[in-house]
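[Meeting: bench + compute handoff]

Bench side (C.D.) handed over the final construct sequence. Compute side (W.E.) agreed to return the predicted structure before the next meeting so the bench team could plan truncations. Sequence as handed over:
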Amino acid sequence: MTAKIRSRLTDWTTVLPVIAVVVLAATWGRHLPGPLIVVVAALLAGAVLAAVHHAEVVAHKVGEPLGSLVLAVAVTVIEVGLIVTLMISGGDKTQALARDTVFAAVMITCNGILGLSLLLGALRRRVAVFNPEGTGGALATVATLATLSMVVPTFTSRPGPQFSPAQLTFAAVASLALYGLFVMVQTGRHRDYFLPVTQEGSIIPEDADGDGHADPPSTRTALASLALLVVALVAVVGDAKTISPAIEAGVEAANLPQAFVGVVIALLVLLPETLAAARAARRDRVQISLNLALGSAMASIGLTIPAIALASIWLEGPLLLGLGGTQMTLLALTAVTGVLTVVPGRATVLQGGVHLVLLAAFVFLAASP
């Protein structure tokens, strides 16, 4: 028993997140030289892998779809904290930070993670199968949240793509209500809609996960992994912010728009969910991958908008939430394509490729608007 505890304490998934947080505390707010930036970036990558491991341990303990929800909410809560912190300290140049970050998260999750999951699932079984009822409900919720929070502000009577205080309050309350309702449905009376299915459409038993872990971990192990998951995610988001000045300098040197910094940081922050979704898809659990993708998009909007609405009490300057014409076109195309992908409950490599091309279009147009 002592040897097992010692082995667990010295395991890289335990040690590396702690080291990453210690380095984060030592480097926070400082200008880093090139070699140290490389070290922080390496620790960030290791923290991402550790986060995926601990998220899977927790998910195996609590079962699906609650397991997917744990990682999505944990990442989003820390991401929201990062956004609010940057907006408070960033001045005028961060007026559109929330919009740019949330929109990037939606495009990355609904096209990148979703497309990659469908592609990997289809490559494994020729056709990726999932539950259209649960996935369709999640997609409808994401589309509604995105439209209310990021499209409507462009067309209100208030000058600029922004809400009035009353409109922002309504959007925040509506976002929280929709997100809360979805969580109730996903984990309650319609839980079966979010469980993996076989090629014939029947639900896969939870103990037949095929991942080499026949028995769920103990409660003590799961709680330890939950704590280490939070530590790893703090390291991921914090280290992303630490190296953001280097990212900003690189973006400026490449003559890219300032908004592209948010895209890069969103890509880094969403790495744990991307890797977890890819691993689930490779194990023929495409529904779990889609839960992660759409759940992350939903949490990004449903938690960020209320937090920004609250922070706007002491934030100076306007809060720009409305999307531009190009962004709205990409969002509409993503929603329409997503509906056509989800309705059959089955997808081939074509649908996965279409969503990945949409992500590529978003990244390209963000770099060259």
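W.E. noted at the follow-up: The chain is about 75% helix and 0% strand. C.D. will use this when planning the next construct.
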